[in-house]
Design brief:
alpha+beta; single chain; rod-shaped; IQ_motif_EF-hand-BS; IQ domain-containing protein F5-like isoform X2; about 150 residues
């Protein structure tokens, strides 16, 4: 059992150390690879989250813009309908005023006139209208002059 056993034992020990070292290198390489893969996966998940947030923000902005456009359009339609109603009421009021003024003129009558003042006389022209009857008066009135 002499020198042959020791050499085999030394060879086995050397093979054991080499196998251990190769295993350590392989495990270290696999650890680095898995860490790199984990970093890439994490970065990708962050990019997906950012992309989803961007899509949500764009979707929300689009929705808000559409809502604003709908509200603006509704306000324009309401304004147009109110203006149309106001114009109809204004037209009706004008018609009522015209008939009322005509009625007042027919029942009460009106007086129109002109006058001229020349030196010492007053020229007066009056037109009095009562319903269907009209009367015209023209008169010259002398004015007293104090000298």
């Amino acid at each position: 059992m002499g020198p042959g056993i020791k050499t085999t034992t030394k060879q086995e020990a050397a093979m054991f150390i080499q196998a251990w070292w190769r295993g350590t290198l392989v495990r270290r390489t696999l650890l680095h690879a898995s860490l790199r893969a984990w970093i890439i996966q994490r970065w990708w998940k962050q990019m997906l989250v950012k992309l989803m947030e961007k899509k949500k923000r764009l979707s929300l902005q689009s929705y808000a813009q559409q809502e604003w456009a709908v509200v603006k359009l509704q306000s324009w339609v309401r304004m147009w309908r109110l203006r149309l109603r106001y114009c109809r009421l204004l037209h009706a009021v004008r018609i009522i005023q015209i008939y009322w003024r005509w009625h007042i003129c027919q029942t009460r009558g009106f007086i129109q006139g002109r006058y001229n003042l020349k030196e010492s006389q007053l020229n007066l022209q009056l037109e009095i209208s009562l319903g269907l009857q009209a009367c015209k008066v023209q008169q010259c009135i002398p004015l007293p002059v104090n000298e």
